[in-house]
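#struct-queue
[09:14] JT: dropping the first one here, sequence first, then the structure tokens:
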Amino acid sequence: MGIRTIWALLMMMMIIEVESSLHRVGGGKYNWKPDVNFSDWANHQRFYSGDWLYFGFDRTRHNILQVNKSSYEQCIDNDFIFNVTRGGRDVFQLLQPKPYYFICGRGYCLKGMKLSVNVLPQPPPSTTTVPIIPASTANTLIIDSNAFTAIATTILTVFIYKALYFD
């Protein structure tokens, strides 16, 4: 086992299991534009910490500003928290479970280009089901994802130890 394999195994051991989703704002590739009901779209989504928002838009006409609730409600774009705008296909990660507010400046907020999302904490990890089929009967073994991670880490550690000291 070479040094690259050992390095790859070590990196795999450090991976933290967190699921995240990419939400295309407005439901399409280039839907950050007027005449899209962003409130209706957001009400049909479930946002968790770690998820990403994708904004597709014409950057010569629109922008994306993260604002506070008051600025969101009044469409005030001069005291924003963060300018998400980069190139017209921009992403924003929802890091904390809390409400987030976004508007388009340049007067478009007043035409409905604003988005409010309520971010929830990550749900608990799901359990992994591993089927066990003995010769006589069929059973199912449920392994908690933390136990699965511990088992996988132990196996990887044994392989690394073997590679370092017995090859």
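[09:21] JT: and here's the second one, same format:
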Amino acid sequence: MSTYLFAKDLISPSVASELPKGYTLRPLQKSDHAEFLSVLTILTKVGDISFETWSARYDWMAARNDEYFVIVIENDLGKVVAVGSLIIEKKLLLSPLVLQVSLHSHTRALSNGDEVDSIRNCAAVGHIEDIAVAADQQGKKLGLRIIQALDAIAQQVGCYKSILDCSEKNQGFYEKCGFKLAGVQMAHYYEGK
């Protein structure tokens, strides 16, 4: 059995408990190569990624296990049927909440009773990417569970927000997951990449 990409204890037990009976939510393992890529074909053309190439990228990500959190859901037969990724971006700025608070006072109590101190800076943002559920598994709320699990990890590792890009047809799904429209995505694609 492969080792996990990151510490399994970051997986939310409450999210995992909402999965269908026999399904498991866990960090990616190197041995997930073929099944992971198969699920990703729901999103895009994957191409022929050799196990050697996969292993090199996996090892690179594992060496940065405080930045890369890739999770999978296995069905009751142990097959990977849903996947998602969280990439942590460490900013050189204050979080907007901290900046707003520090403009009014050095420390202010928030509505939930937590306090934010203006000394906190260099905040982190979670980028949720590559959410995919195998076609024969859709309708079981697996995509919702992937999003909830990644969102919980982002909170645990200190992100002040999570963001994602999606197609217009998927906007309603992500709104049901608690996300709201917050801008426009722009892209600049490079030839041959």
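[09:30] RK: nice, looked through the second one.
[09:31] RK: The CA atoms of residues 90 and 124 lie 4 Å apart.
[09:31] JT: good to know. DSSP finds six helices and seven strands in the chain.
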